[in-house]
Amino acid sequence: MNWKKYNDKATTITIGNYKGGAGKTTNATLLSYTLSNMGISTLVVDLDPQSNATKELMLTKFINSPEEDTTINKTLMAGIEDGSLMDLPVHIKSNLELIPSFIDFEGFAKYLYKNTSSDVEEDFFLSKYFEPLKEKYDLIILDVPPMSIEITKNAVTSSDYVLISLQTQEYSLTGAESYVEELGKLTSMYNLNLDVVGILPVLMKNNGKVDEYILDSAKTSFGEENLFETYIPQMERIKRFAVNGITDQDRHDRKVLNVYEEVAAELLKRLEQFNNQ
């Protein structure tokens, strides 16, 4: 399908779940990579101090442009302290840029409380930083850590949609349920124009009994129509991407990227349906 902007600003999507290891960063990086291949101008904002998305995408940059400098001159936290993120985006490849994070982002909560005087200021602190960026891109994808209420709230209040990454294990399901509950509270409290675009299952074991049980439970909890039709199967190559960067060089790479092309197509279809409502 052809992508089009529905307004003059980027559509912003948080990929979340309160449980760590639920596939959030993998989905953020591979979805962004795939969307950029489709000609969609995409920005990844790494809001996790562990900076795994930053590491994977910088390795991807080196693979695509080994002659280019891969030094990160300025991180997310430095941009926040300077009052702007506009000079932070790093070019990864055609149609894909990154705002990099680093361990110094662990100081965000302390900085936040020191520089705000109300709950509203705290919860909407980052939105003023993201707003100018929305003029430059089609999509902005926010990769968030599992358990930081300050980052979670700021990501959600800056977003149009949330995509929930669900690994097929019990803790990931309960993490997703808690996350959806928090989304409901924030939406109600601030009257946010926010929707869950869908729940993307990441299988622990292909055709496993536990996976089937968790998927059935998720359909009961969230509604079958809210789960993506495309699931992310267990694929060893995904682990290599995290270590070496994303490549498109052999059939194993292509197998992963083909799945994410299906996910990306479904994501765009879901966004179109929401915008046509």
Commentary on this structure:
The structure is a single chain. With 277 residues, the protein is of the alpha/beta class. It is built from eleven helices and seven strands. Strands 3-4-2-5-1-6-7 form a seven-stranded mixed beta sheet, sandwiched between helices. The two termini are 18 Å apart.
Which structural class do the helices and strands define? Answer: alpha/beta
- Rg calculated over all Cα atoms: 18 Å
Helix count, DSSP H or I runs of 4 or more residues: 11
User: Major sheet: order of its strands?
Assistant: 3-4-2-5-1-6-7
**Assembly of the depicted chains:** single chain
User: What spatial form do the alpha-carbon principal axes imply?
Assistant: globular
The description of the largest β-sheet is: 7 strands, mixed
Q: How widely separated are the two ends?
A: 18 Å
Overall pLDDT score: 92
Tell me what portion of residues adopts beta-strand conformation: 5-15%
The poorly predicted ranges are none
Number of strands: 7
**H and E order:** EHEHHEEHHHEHEHEHHH
Helix content percent band: 40-55%
Which tags fit this structure?
277 residues, alpha/beta, seven-stranded mixed sheet, 11 helices, globular
Please outline the helices and strands.
Layout: E1 11-16, H1 24-37, E2 42-46, H2 52-64, H3 76-82, E3 90-93, E4 96-99, H4 108-114, H5 119-123, H6 127-130, E5 139-143, H7 149-157, E6 161-167, H8 170-190, E7 195-202, H9 209-222, H10 236-244, H11 251-276
Parallel strand pairs: 1-5, 1-6, 2-4, 2-5, 6-7
Antiparallel strand pairs: 3-4
Helix pairs in contact: 1-2, 1-11, 2-10
